[in-house]
Amino acid sequence: MAKTLIIGAGGVASVVIHKCCQNSDVFDDICIASRTKSKCDAFKEKLQNQTKTKISTAKVDADNVDELIALINHYKPEIVINVALPYQDLTIMDACLITGTHYLDTANYEPIDTAKFEYKWQWAYREKFKQAGITAVLGSGFDPGVTGVFSAYAQKHHFDEIYTIDILDANAGDHGYPFATNFNPEINIREVTAKGSYFENSRFIETEPMSIKRVYNFPEIGEKDMYLLHHEELESLAINIKGVKRIRFFMTFSQNYLTHLKVLENVGMTSIVPIDFEGKKIVPLQFLKAVLPDPASLGPRTKGKTNIGCIYQGIKDGKPKNYYVYNVCDHEECYAEVGSQAISYTTGVPAMIGAMMVLTGKWNKAGVYNVEEFDPDPFMDALNKWGLPWKESFNPELVE
Fold it and tell me: With a threshold of 0.85, does the pTM exceed it?
């Protein structure tokens, strides 16, 4: 059907590659590219005899626009799936713009020298992509991603007006390590140690990191401590879900995780400010990333489930209505299927689905869009088909 260039070779990329190979009717030709070509070659070696999808590999530095352009011009993909680092979103978008290629990512851009992630840099490309006649889909992971699709679905089918959205992300998986992060340690720790925020009454209210805690009884997981964080989808949902008065994002953390993180923070290991060490400049957080377990290695060790979903309160036909839509994912089942834990799985599957939406013309309009700006129905159907079935409740426990 179409050529697809996948940039990245980490845990999420692994899931995207596996899922594209399962869906060879749409993804009949893929190229896997990263700075370390041997990782790409390993995926090809593992999968090429299990799929009808033609697989090729390439070396590319995603920080280098000229290298990206050369690769795109050589391979001629219809879409680029960016599962590299968020710092590289803009260089890849630049290359897609210059070559006239559709673009999709799973996390918004953040500058490498400041732990601040927001959409303004990517939204600035809207007019350019529109004029080029190509589509950019931002944040097609789970959160952001599926949480936005859930919101568009709730708005379309269940509410006349949505007043509040609570996004709840719970991971009850146990990998057995004293301390490890479930996705890129650098991104994860920057996210958790940043100030929190929530949207209320048309403005964002900032909070101290991890200062707002709630306990929630998650379906199939049980009671968990969860903490309010800033998360990028709050920014787009505040604009795209009409009339919403409050949006909050909560993520679960164990006390063990928080204690380790606090100690590391106290001794300066989570800093992104370079320091001098034996005549070299090193970034403490990047050094910490190097000594922590690779998230991609957690798959065979992790047991338990994730539960990610959204609780909506609003009005339908003049009456108050509550609605909770969520997915429960099992770490061991994910590993048995594609060799990764559920955190990578829940991000990688929606990236494949979002690219499929663009390639099949269901989400094909020129410009730069967040997922909730498209029709949610075909995406919701695809979640059930491709490994992330969703469940719903019309009488959920609410978050106080």
Answer: yes
